[in-house]
Amino acid sequence: MAKVEFRHVAKRFGDLEVIPDLSLTIEDGEFVALLGPSGCGKSTSLFMLAGIYLPSGGELLFDGSVVNEVEAKDRNVGIVFQSYALYPHMTVRDNVLFPLRFKRMPRAEALGRVIAAANLVQVEELLDRRPSELSGGQQQRVALARALVKEPQLLLLDEPLSNLDATLRLIMRTEIKSLQKKLGVTTVLVTHDQIEATTMADRIICMRAGRIEQIGTPDDLYRRPQSLFIAGFIGSPPINVVSGDAREGEVCIGSVAFPFAGAPGAVTIGLRPEHLRFTDSGLSGRIAQIEPMGREILYVVDTDAGYFRVLEHGSVAAHGVGEPVNIGFSPDDSLVFDAASQRLLAATRVGPPT
Amino acid sequence: MVAPVTFTELHPRPAAPVDWGKLAARARSLRRAKAVVLYAFLISVSLPIILPYFWLVTIALSARTGVADTVVLWRSMAVLAPAVIAFWLAAMLARNRRQLWLGLTAIGVVATAAFAWLVGPDLHLRNFIFLVEPDFASVVRSRVGAVHGAVQFPSVWRAFGNSLLIAGSQTAIVLTVASLAAYYLSRFQFPARAAMLRSLLVLHAFPVLTLIVPMFLMLYWIGLLDTLSGVILVLVAFELPFAIFIMKGFFDAVPWDIEMSALTDGASRRQAFLRVVLPQVRNGLLAVAVFTFIRGWEEYIFVFTFLIRNTNWTMSLYMYYVRDDVMGVDYGVVSAVGVFYLVPSLILYLAAQRYLMQMSIGGVKG
Questions:
Q1: Which residues of B touch A81 (CB under 8 A)?
Q2: Nearest CA in chain B to A150
């Protein structure tokens, strides 16, 4: 197991600068998610950890030693690719055995380890099959077994769930998380899916255009997103964003003024659908659409400040389409961002509707 | 004011019910007629291809020294042509697999019986005398009076071995060099990579015959004229560009992930190439190997120019001199040599056709 550290790491491909300057510490045994949209440099970071890409600058450390130039084969890193990258010409047994072939190990011991790894992810009956004869979920498990069989000091998961169907994704999510806790292996998960990141990781590193946007627990990212970008990225259904013009003591959202404690200027206000309620006062509008989601109902409300999404518990719609409603919220749930820099104004709140 | 016309007025219901059975029957006979035309076309284009090979074998097995006799050919034709047509018809008319097999077996039995009756008595193996008698030309000529052949022939097995050696080593070298070069072209970025890929194709575009004089001079200067290794080198040089191009297509189709996975699994670059990447392009290797081998096996121009001693003859040269020497006396022997020359290519194609069909999957793309 290892503690991993990026110190001002940069990566350029020719003239293209993918990662300008990345500094980051991953603690021993931690499960960390690199979250961000495609092209934000998260996979590049992962491949640098694996030793496939050479950093263009800075230092990459495993347990305090610089490993920039250490070859992939000597890093003892296990990796699960999005495509699983199983070797199609080998049986499952040979696939899982492959990493052990390069470690002068007696064959009997190696085979024993293969069986142990297969047991761990429950593929022991599939050992004689070829990858093409396996389902997506089974291939995923075999890829995990292959990554784990050499007892890696670092486990890297590159979008491991994106090729699975929804049910299987839920199951594998739970399994990977419990496996990681059981083995205590330092794990880095790369994903563009916020649900995957928030459900599995201890800590999330949110990236954007090669830079770290915010590091925090899933709860931090949800409650205190440091920028509008993260507020929009975390949470489903997505946060309502509305621009307001703040004056002394009040801010206007649409035509309604709300009490406001903060400096005057243009602000952007984020309100999560699950934090909005139908009240007697507040922002007025009409219900434009109703989207039942089973346990909850999502109302799309047309106001003069734009469309708002409101999530209400219950499975029976209490309001009908076209019904006039007022939307209210608690000041603690309001997120106010500076309109220009899009950074969170941490101490600023929008007051309760009057 | 025009009265509005309703949809049903524009599309009145047909007075008489549609005769679906008649329509189906018409479609059926049309389909059949089309099939007949198609089969007729296929037969007419395939007969001119099949016939020469059939005749070659028939002549090799039936012609006699000093006798110009084509009756056997016409008889064999009289069996073959109806048999081919009957096969097509059976394939077309059969309504299920069992009928098909019954029909084909019946036609096969009848054709074999007819062949045995009409052609059988004329068949013999004497034209294959060259397999055991190096000086067969003298033997053949002695049958018609003139004893001395003009050409001193080596044993056919020597020529066979030379051809095997040329084609085999050419294949081995091309496979090794092409797979390494193609892998590099597919995976690594380096200056002038695109230009190199383009030049690979251009190299293949020129007729190689134009280079025969400079090649002769080069081989003479480096002392490889009239040696098998000289010819092998020349053939390798001309075969490589296309082989590299084909192999690059196959390597391009192997996902990077698999290789990266092998590297993180602890393999070195070389081990990843040998154990993980190379097995993925097995079909490409086989296809290139077969084509290169056959190209070397049939090589004629370069061996004719660069090889002089008769101990260096290949099968194509042997064939050429046999034709040159005894054609007027005994075309049966010429045909027999042809059949003998043909057999290895045929075996190779039959054994590898499953892989050759997959050539297109690897694809060719820059």
A1: 257, 260-261
A2: B265
Look up the pTM and report it.
0.77
Asked if ipTM goes beyond 0.90, one says no
- For residue A190, what pLDDT is reported? 94
Q: pLDDT (tens digit, 9 = 90+) per residue, A48-58? A: 999 999 999 99
Q: Would B16 be classed as within a structural domain?
A: no
What is the CATH number for B354?
1.10.3720.10
pLDDT at B67 over 70: no
Q: How far apart are the first and last CA of chain A?
A: 56
What Å distances lie between residue B142 and A196, B65, B70, B124, B156, CA to CA? 91, 10, 23, 19, 20
Give ranges for CATH 2.40.50.140 in chain A. Answer: 239-350
Chain B residue nearest residue A152, CA to CA? B265
Candidates A54, A81, A150, partner chain B, best to mutate (most B CBs within 10 A): A81
For residue B146, tell me if it sits in a domain.
Answer: no
Q: How buried is A15 (Cβ within 10 angstroms: 0-12 exposed, 13-18 middle, 19+ buried)? A: exposed
Q: What fold, for A4-231?
A: Rossmann fold (3.40.50)
Residue B332 lies in a domain: yes
Give residue ranges of A with CB < 8 Å to any B CB: 47, 50-52, 71-75, 77-79, 81-83, 85, 87-89, 98-99, 101-103, 146, 150, 156
Kindly report the average pLDDT of chain A as a whole number.
89
* Contact flag B258-A85 (C-beta cutoff 8 Å): yes
Contact B257 A51 (CB under 8 A): no
For a pLDDT cut of 90, what percent of chain A falls above it?
Answer: 51
- Please name the amino acid found at residue B73: L
Question: What was the pLDDT predicted at B351?
Answer: 84
CATH among 2.40.50.140, 1.20.58.340, 3.40.50.450, 3.40.50.300 for A239-350: 2.40.50.140
pLDDT of residue B361: 46
Q: Which amino acid is at B326?
A: V
Same domain as B104, residue B189: no
The answer, yes or no, to whether residue B360 has pLDDT greater than 60, is no
- Cβ distance B257 to A146 less than 8 Å, yes or no, reads no
Per-residue H/E/C for A35-95: ECCCCCCHHHHHHHHHCCCCCCEEEEEECCEECCCCCHHHCCEEEECCCCCCCCCCCHHHH
pLDDT tens for A127-151 read 999 999 998 889 999 999 999 998 8
Strands A211-216 and A240-247: unpaired
Min distance A45 CA to chain B CA atoms (Å): 14
